[in-house]
Amino acid sequence: MPPNFKEMTNAQLKAYALAHRDEIEPLRVLFSRRNPPDSEATWYGPMVTKEGVPIEENIRIAEEAIKQKIAKYEEKQKEKELEEKIRKQIEQEKNSGF
Question: CA-CA distances (angstroms) from residue 5 to 2, 37, 55?
Fold first, then answer.
């Protein structure tokens, strides 16, 4: 009887899938846990045709999406750095008696 994949942790599922590469079910369960799920994911067209010819418009769209994702990430990093700076400043003021 196969193990109950739904009760396994992600780490256990990965280990099982690597040890049993011919089995699909552990991968299905693992992928179903992705965040965001497929219903919320953004899907992009292929970058090349079946013949290997680049699809310039799809490449442009994907590049733009990547740039936007990087910009969001960088903005979040700046916000985290600012929050940390403010926390340190508040902590220093507390410790200095202000």
Answer: 8, 18, 39
Q: Which residues pair with 48 in a beta bridge?
A: 54
| Placement of tokens 């899938």 in the chain | 17
DSSP classification of residue 5: G
| pTM tops 0.90, yes or no | no
DSSP string, 37-94: -GGG------SB-TTS-B-HHHHHHHHHHHHHHHHHHHHHHHHHHHHHHHHHHHHHHH
What's the rounded Cα separation, in Å, for the pair 8 and 65?
34
Q: What is the dihedral of CA 14, 18, 24, 28, to 10 degrees?
A: 20
At 18-60, the pLDDT tens digits run: 999 999 999 999 988 887 766 777 889 999 999 999 999 999 9
Distance CA 12, CA 84 (A): 36
